[in-house]
User: Fold this.
Amino acid sequence: MRFLFLFLLWFAAGFSTGCVNVRHGPDFDPHDPRGQAFQESSTTNAINPAWLKPSTNEFRLGPGDHLDIDMLGRGQETQPALVGPDGKIYFDLLPGVSVWGLTLSQTRDALQDQLSHFYKNPRVTVTLREVRSSRIWVMGRINTPGIYPLETPMTVIDAVTRAGGLYTAQFTGTTEELADLQHSFLLRHGKFMPVNFKKLIHEGDLSQNIYLEPDDFVYLPSALATEVYVIGAVTEPRAVSFKDQVTLSSAISNARGTLPDAWLREVIIIRGSLTEPHYAVVNFLDILKGKAPEVPLQPRDIVYVPDHPLGIFQNALQTVVNTFVRTVAANEGIRAAGGSTSVGVGVNVGP
Assistant:
């Protein structure tokens, strides 16, 4: 329960809303069932070269980390020590030494300083046995999804490998139909990171293989999902499952309709890769009035109903993608932590 609380606290800290501004260029027909009329756009900046370099910062201790401490020349066995919730370790005669945020060498010096009150010229070695304060999340269609310690520099590929690699189909021996790399993502501090998993894993493009930071969330969803996501100004933002063809109207209806202040003239539909999405802007009001035909949706489409005209916002696509990945990460994290609740896929997009 404590871990679930910490996850929700981390998620809430990273949950910041953006403004929306879509410039969708010339008119086009989003009613094409093949989706060929959707416009293409990039929602992200290029990979920052600094992300491709390991951090030069030394590891710093935090609550939950396990240490082995040896006081040389005292004929004592190596003693285990745990960094407690108060950030302190309790060793030998010491009442408690605060080590939260210290490196291993700083921890050694602090112990030697405190032990000098009881011993002459004490010499101590400190070894990191297990990391629990610095973690990453690797979830989805991989062999051993879970939460892994980040005690040494680790890239996205390192993390996927650490989690057993992509889940392989039992009969075909392939991963393509199981992991949806177009909708895979990396979330950092509540923000979508522009990693193209398809280029990285299928094409071996190492320019996408950035180094991870504590609390990064890597998610590779199932390619077998038949859901569309309805977010924004709807009564019950949610993932809508379906077996047969789903339309824009039926998807919004499954989200229990729109809110009174919904702006129906500019509903956004996002399709395809999260790093290079295709999108359409649809006048849903005309569909309701019978002035325009229905829009057929495809699995994993994202439908966004704004509550204001899009022209008064900034970065509409980035706002929608960020909202989508934060919500998926929150729900997967809650499940991993043993929770049974879920977080809605709505977002406040006030001016």
